Amino acid sequence: MADNVAPETDAPNTASDALAGLIRPNVERMQPYSSARDEFEGMAPVMLDANENSLGSVGPDDFSRYPDPHQRAIKADLAKLKGLTPENIFLGNGSDEAIDLLVRLTCVPGQDSIVVCPPTYGMYEVAANLNDVRVERLPLTPDFQLPADAAARLVQSTAKLLFLCSPNNPTGNLLAQEAIESILASFNGLVIVDEAYADFANAPSWTTRLAEFPRLVVLQTFSKAWGLAGLRLGVAYAAPVLIAYLNKIKPPYNISAATQQHALAALAAAPQLSELRAKLLRGRAFLAEHLPALPIVEHVFPSDANFLLVRFNVDATRVYDQLRARGIVVRNRTSQPGCAGCLRLTVGTDAENTRLLQALAEIGAKQPVEKARQ
Ligand SMILES: *Cc1c(COP(=O)(O)O)cnc(C)c1O
Predict the structure, then answer these.
(1) In this model, does residue 370 exceed pLDDT 90?
(2) 100 C-alpha to center of ligand 1: Å?
(3) What is the pLDDT of residue 368?
(4) What mean pLDDT comes out for the span 327-341?
(5) pLDDT, mean of residues 285-289
(6) Mind telling me which residue stretches traverse the membrane in this protein (predicted)?
């Protein structure tokens, strides 16, 4: 029940005040869906309240019962791992669900806007477009940092949300902490820091600053460092008042029983995360060391993520096609602002990394002489 009571009633005034004018009036007014599992928690000997199939499931595993709509077990473990409370945690069907719900929670279609900082993750803009929400752009500098006057420009903004991605996709770098701090002080909307790649970065997570900033939302995911992209589990961390609103508007059973079971097993095995991360970081260092030696590589951008953005001194789309012809698929980012000539290379296994370097060396050897660097 706790997640579905009106968020304003039990929240400290300061936290509610920080959200003044940011929640859509129809969301304030609406009654959330009250599921069978809201109205009766736990198990009784006879459960005939949810139109489930008491006889069992078709297929090898029993999934006949609806899952916990509040995902209490996962939130308890995650709260311990992150030094937060379960009330700071929203779980989504991937971070993409959290992104969509944040737009729908705050932006009136046809009226409100969000701010994005290109080049960046494309889903912010897709979620805005789907909801008929205007997109304002605050482009990153050529070295992919926030412009020096970002905070000053955002003081005037009436946008409801600002999406910052740190480490940023597709560029790989962390955004400077001081720049984000000034924006948190100046912008009146929610500041969403997408930390999908934070586990690969050598910097504290913004989750450690939630108590200071009532309009800060931190997104993380099980898709990258945890290696569970197929599971679809994303997390939004924020002040309890804001999390309560996300819970109010989410589909009641948005995290499947299969996902909840797997996530619990993964959390119990959390020590494996650092091993996996250490291996990936060694792979990233290996690529970052050897890529610059290739004649077709112009620049390898510094990365705090599990990928490298690489600028080529030859037609990058041709390099992309020639990699594909050799059975290697990377991401072509040449059309992204500030990313002319760039491909995004995900760090793979040792064998995959070596194969990628060999393929790029071969492709370089076949380039017309006048186009190559030497
Ligand atoms: C991969 C990625 C995500 C993860 O999305 P999921 O829906 O959780 O898989 C979120 N943000 C960014 C910037 C990403 O690159």
Answers:
(1) no
(2) 12
(3) 65
(4) 97
(5) 98
(6) none
The domains found in the chain, sorted by start residue, are 15-268 (3.40.640.10), 273-365 (3.90.1150.10)
* Cα 103 from Cα 112, distance rounded (Å): 10
Q: Which of helix, strand or coil describes residue 210?
A: coil
Q: How far apart are alpha carbons 116 and 122 in whole angstroms?
A: 9
**Closest atom of ligand 1 to CA, residue 96:** 7
Which two three-digit tokens encode residue 245?
Answer: 């609103």
Q: How close is the Cα of 373 to the center of ligand 1, in Å? A: 35
Reported as a single tens digit per residue, the pLDDT across 124-145 is 999 999 999 999 999 999 999 9
Band of the pLDDT at 13, cuts 50, 70, 90?
Answer: low
Q: Is the pTM of this model over 0.90?
A: yes
- 306: Cβ below 6 Å to ligand 1? no
Residues written for the chain = 374
- Of all protein residues, whose CA lies closest to atom 5 belonging to ligand 1? 95
How many Å apart are CA 162 and CA 102, to the nearest integer? 11
How far apart, in whole angstroms, are the C-alpha atoms of residue 234 and residue 247? 14
CB 353 within 8 A of CB 360: no
> To the nearest 10°, the Cα dihedral for 93, 94, 98, 104?
-70
- Say if CB 133 and CB 113 are below 8 A apart: yes
Atom in ligand 1 nearest the alpha carbon of residue 224: 1
Residue with CA at minimum distance from ligand 1 atom 7: 94
Torsions phi, psi of 130, nearest 5?
Answer: -60, -35
**Residue-by-residue DSSP string for 288-349:** HHHGGGSTTEEEE---SSSEEEEEESS-HHHHHHHHHHTT---EE-TTSTT-TTEEEEE---
List Cβ neighbours of 356 (8 Å cut-off, separation of 6 or more). Answer: 287, 323, 328, 330, 345, 348
Q: Which two tokens stand for residue 234?
A: 């994303």
- CA-to-CA distance for 112 and 132, rounded, in angstroms? 9
Q: What angle, 0 to 180 degrees and rounded to 10, lies between the N-to-C axes of helices 350-365 and 271-290?
A: 20
**Distance, C-alpha 209 to centroid of its chain:** 18
Cβ-contact 349, 339 below 8 angstroms = no
